[in-house]
Amino acid sequence: MNEKQETPLLFRKHRAEEWIGRIYTTFCVVLLIVIIVSIVYYVASKGVATFAINGVSLSQFLFGQTWQPDSNKFGALPFIFGSFVTSLLAAVIASPLSVCAALFMTEITPNWGKKVLQPVVELLAGIPSVVYGFIGLSVLVPFLRDVFPGQGIGVAAGSIVLSIMILPTITSIATDALSSLPRNLKEASYGLGATRWQTIAGVVIPTVLPSVLTGVVLGMARAFGEALAVQMVIGNAPHIPTSLFESASTLTSVITLNMSNTVMGSVQNNALWSMALILLLMTFVFVLIVRLLERRTRI
Amino acid sequence: MSAKVKDRIATGVIIFFSVLIIAILVGMLGYIMVRGISHIDWHFLTSEPETIKAGGGIGPELFNSVYLLILTLIITIPLGIGAGIYMAEYAKEGRITASIRLVVEVLSSFPSIVVGLFGLLVLVNTFNFGFSVLSGALVLTIFNMPLMVRVTEQAFHNVPIEQKEAGLAMGLSHWKIITSILFPVALPAIITGTILAAGRIFGEAAALLFTAGLTTPKLDFTDWNPTSLHSPINPLRPAETLSVHIWKVNSEGLSPDAAQIAAGASAVLVIMVLLFNLLARWIGRLLYRKFTSIK
């Protein structure tokens, strides 16, 4: 009898607890959605204003080559070009290095490699971007200036700094993919008398290629959005560079340098927001590509 | 070329590149330490920066970085863990959960400068927080929350299902199971993840340019009234952090020893990040031992 009286009370307490927990955690998740919706909304509304309110034509913005805000010329092509070139080059430099590091850790010396290279990669990931920029400015730029024509600052310096920054991203994803590879795949290849390299090139790499590409895309996404390190070494000239050692600009470096010098609501300021909108849209593109690649990995 | 020779060449190339990566890191750390540490002394760590003269320090910047970090963690930890628990325990596989997962993924890959601009528009201007520690902390929360969500979710998933079943068998409510059974077991992983994320926050700069600002008012460390402009703990004062200071000194520094200051400040920053890494490992191991009673 006693128990029967207690049960409803216990139930009520349970239910109250349950509700508090549910409401609190749901609130946290809803907050995430609110944040992302408001970021997209605010950046888009500012970015679109350039075309909707100030009447700059979209094609002039995307394909125009002259950036002269004083004479009303808002061609952002040099910056878009700079962003794509530096992040592509960074991926081209970093990918082979990362794949080699991943192979070293999983295929060649699993013990020693994991113990030494793994912490190295983690540390590279932890170093703040301004420190990369500072080292680029004080070591890499003088080196490039001495060895190659030009000032040292420019596309090459930017790409090299970015490639070291995205190396950990690609390496860790490639390492994960390599170490989750079923053993019998490799054993079958060795069983046929293949050498280690034949196994790696013929079996291992083709199998993990989608995952490695995922890493490369994530690395490119990071390089595309990186601001300060690039700004410090790229030179920030508003034109399309004709050589690797020529000064250039990226979307992020232009925003960094000009946002605080322009008046909120002016055409020039809105044009900077349009560039931020391009960055935002590119993030969606990168995430989409990653999703597509992941779908391929599963099959 | 025979297969064996090819194999040897390929192995050589792989080893060469791996050693190159190690050499890059050792070279960078060595450079930062050799150039930076000689510049670090008590005066450098505690005194005010100079704009034109040589001999400026990084005292206020160091304090700002730490203060901003603490404020960010106070805001992020409860929210991130809450959302992580939702994802691990309440979310049912379906379209809504998949879209929340997508939100977390997109949010963590937004360029920091775009999030900073959002902070400038919404926090600094619309909400009128101004260039302040609070704006900075809120914007860093946006970065840090996806990380916390992922860490928490992962930690909860790694708790053995038997623990949960035991709780259910005892007739506990789901929330009670979460808070008193699953959470303590997941805690070591959450703490480790939080410290690693904290290292990231400490080095962040691009977003703070537009939210926490590029200046610091003259700080009076005897004034603990949180509403006074010169009080170090006032959350509504502008605060230039260490990483922002490095960027500013490098790109527009006028003092003759700008390069040395950047080197010293970089060394301090790198040492802090190393400490965060070691701390995360150490605490992770310590708590793991405590909770699993493995000696």
UniProtKB/TrEMBL annotation, chain A:
The name on file for this protein is: Phosphate transport system permease protein
Q: What does this protein do?
A: Part of the binding-protein-dependent transport system for phosphate; probably responsible for the translocation of the substrate across the membrane.
What InterPro entries does this protein's entry cite?
MetI-like, MetI-like_sf, Phosphate_PstC, Phosphate_Transport_Permease
Superkingdom assignment: Bacteria
Q: Which stretches make up the ABC transmembrane type-1 domain? A: 80-290
Q: Name one Pfam family in it.
A: BPD_transp_1
Q: Which organism is it from?
A: Paenibacillus physcomitrellae
The entry sums up its family as follows:
Belongs to the binding-protein-dependent transport system permease family. CysTW subfamily.
State which residue ranges cross the membrane.
Answer: 21-44, 79-104, 116-141, 153-178, 199-221, 271-293
NCBIfam families associated with the record: phosphate_pstC
Q: Where does this polypeptide localize?
A: Cell membrane
Q: How does it sit in the membrane?
A: Multi-pass membrane protein
Recorded hits in CDD domains, A to Z, give: TM_PBP2
* Keywords for this protein: Cell membrane, Membrane, Phosphate transport, Transmembrane, Transmembrane helix, Transport
From TrEMBL, chain B:
Instruction: Give TM segment ranges.
Output: 12-34, 66-88, 100-123, 129-149, 181-202, 258-280
This protein's UniProt keywords: Cell membrane, Membrane, Transmembrane, Transmembrane helix, Transport
Q: Where in the cell is it found?
A: Cell membrane
Tell me which PROSITE patterns the record gives: ABC_TM1 (PS50928)
Q: Major location, coarse class?
A: membrane
Q: Where is the ABC transmembrane type-1 domain?
A: 62-280
Assigned protein family: Belongs to the binding-protein-dependent transport system permease family. CysTW subfamily.
Q: What is this protein called?
A: Phosphate transport system permease protein PstA
Species of origin reads: Paenibacillus physcomitrellae
Q: Which NCBIfam families does its entry note? A: 3a0107s02c
> Magnesium: present as a keyword of the record?
no
Q: Which SUPFAM superfamilies match?
A: MetI-like (SSF161098)
Q: Which InterPro entries match?
A: MetI-like, MetI-like_sf, Phosphate_PstA
Which Gene3D superfamilies would you find in this protein's record? MetI-like
Query: What membrane topology is annotated for this entry?
Result: Multi-pass membrane protein
**In terms of domain of life, where is this protein from?**
Bacteria
Q: Name one Pfam family in it.
A: BPD_transp_1
